[in-house]
Structure formats: structure tokens, C-alpha cells
Write the C-alpha cells for this entry.
Amino acid sequence: LVSQDIAKITDNEFANNTIDKILFQNELDTEEKQFAEKNAYKIIDALEQVKICDPAIGSGAFPMGMLLEIFNTQVYLQELKGFKKDVSDADIKKHIIEESIYGVDIDPGAVDISRLRFWLSLVVDEPVPQPLPNLDFKIVCANTLIPLGNIEELDLNDKAGKAVKELEKLRHEFFNVSSENKLKLERQFKKIQTDLLSLRELATKSNYDIYTKLYEFNPFEDNSCSWFDAEWMFGIKNGFDIVIGNPPYGAKLSKTEKDLFKKTYSDVHMRTPDTFNYFISKSFKILKENGVLSFI
């Protein structure tokens, strides 16, 4: 994946093999070390831009593994360049979580456990206890398989456009906001939701339903949202670089869900499709072109 992002330096087999060794923490020979030193910052920059999602995050094991892989690779390359860290390991991990890690689960308990797992990964590396980041917009409780739908562009008037920009700013600020200001941002979020809800009276029938759905999403409560949309929940517009995880197998589906999934996931051609088939289809829908899907 990194080689896709830094194609200018990976137009030969040697470069690709060296990057693989770096990512897998294998020993480098002299020539490979020279390559790594020369391109260290380009590789680190590519890693800082990667977007990873687990659409059925459960306890968070797979995104946690990705967090550690990115962390270890960045530290290795920084040490190779002789760069002395002026931030703690916890700060590096916190930055990776903020920029790269996303997750969804329909089970509120799984979301709580996953968030706790990431908090603990920071606590163990803090020399002195520090405020923990807010993960409400990083790991959300929602039904991954049910889409929000598409809002017609004509309905995105000035008020809607302003609300979307405010939401993007709020998501960024909320990650590190202090406990004293957290409630203030939560209220701002609800105001944005209310502003969007008010637009439905002037919307088309299809958009009316979508504006109503938007109001349902509340990342601060332990309730599962009936839909999932990466752009509205995470601000991810162009897809993820990596989708990873262990999708649910054999989950019971109602007749309504079966009918909806048959229509939504028309690429699943099976007489009795399993839920994991739908998760695979959904994952390709939220992946970037040439992105990586890895399920067990």
C-alpha cells in the first residue's frame, strides 16, 4: 500500500522488497539501509496519510494491530535517520489514531470495549497520566450494512453546506477537547443536526428521508445508528486505503433485511448469502481504488 502512495520511488522490485522488509521489521542489508535512510520521510508521510477501517470492529484487535505496525515502522525509520523523539510514544500513537484509525460496530458494548482498548494502549506509554482523546467520531455504533443514501446536490443549499463544514471542524476539535468543553461541542453537534433536520421540509421525498436519518446519528449515546456513512460519520469522502477485520458469519437476518440487502448488494450472487458476503461487498464500496481488503 505504501508503495502505491510513493510510486516515484517504487518503480523497481528492489524498492518494493525493501519497503516490505521495513514494514515487516526484517533486517536490512547495507544497500537497503541506504534506501531506507534516503526515503524515510517519504515513507513516514505515506503512513501518516493511510486511512484504515474495521467495519465490524468488535474488540478492536485488528485496528490495534495496524496501530502498532504503523507505530513500530515510524519509530524504526526515525531512529534510522538519527531523529531524537521530542514526543512520547503515547503522543505518536495518539496521532496515528486520530489520522488513520476508524471503526464501526452495531453492538454498543463492542464499541465501548474497542475504545477502551485504544485508551489503554496510550495509558501504558504515558510517563505521566495525560487526558485521553475522545473517540466518539473514531469508533461509532452503527449498522455498517445499511447505507444512508445519497443527498441530491440541488438540496445542498448554503445552510446545508455551512452545516457540513461546521461538522468537519467539530470532528477535528472533539478528538482532543478537554472534559470542560466537551459538553459545549456536543451541544454544537446537536444544533448542526437540528439545522439539517429543518431542511427536510423543503427537500425532495428521497432527501426528506435522508435528512431525517441524519438526525438519528448521535455518537455520544450508547445507541446503534440504523445506518452507516463514512463521509457523514468520519469525514472520509474518497474511501479507505485499508479495510480490515473479522466480519460476522451466520448472523440472523429479518425478511426486511434480506430484501434490503438483496437490493443494496446486487453483486452478491448466492442463493442463501451469509452476512460475511454482504460485509465483503460493503467493504469494496468503501475502499479506494487499489485499496486493500483483508478479512479472516
